[in-house]
Amino acid sequence: MRSAREALTASRRAPLLSALGVVTIAFSLFAFGLFGLVAINIRKALDEVEERVEVRAFLSDSTDIESVAAAMKDIGEFPEVNRVDYVSKDQALERARREMGEFADVFEAGVLPASIEVHLRPGQRSPAVVKAVADKIKTYHFVDDVRYGEEWVEKLYRLRNIATVAGIALGVAFATVAVIIIGATIRMTVLARAKEITIMRLVGATDMFIRLPFLIDGLVKGVLGGLLALLFVWIANRVVNEYFIQTIFFNRELVFVGVVGGALMGVLGSLVSVGRHLRRV
Amino acid sequence: MIRLTEVAKEYPRSGIALAHISFQVKKGEFVFLTGPSGSGKTTILKLLYMDDRPSQGEVWINGVSSKNASGRDISRLRRRIGIVFQDFRLLEDRSAEANIRFTLEVTGAPKATIRSKVARVLTQVGLASKATSFPRELSGGEQQRVAIARALVNDPFVLIADEPTGNLDERATRSVFQLLRDINASGTAVIMATHDLDLVRRSNYRTIELNHGRIVFDSSESPAPARRFDEPLEIHDTPTGTESI
Question: Which candidate, A104, A118, A217, B46, has a CA 20 to 30 Å from the CA of A149?
Answer without folding.
Answer: A104
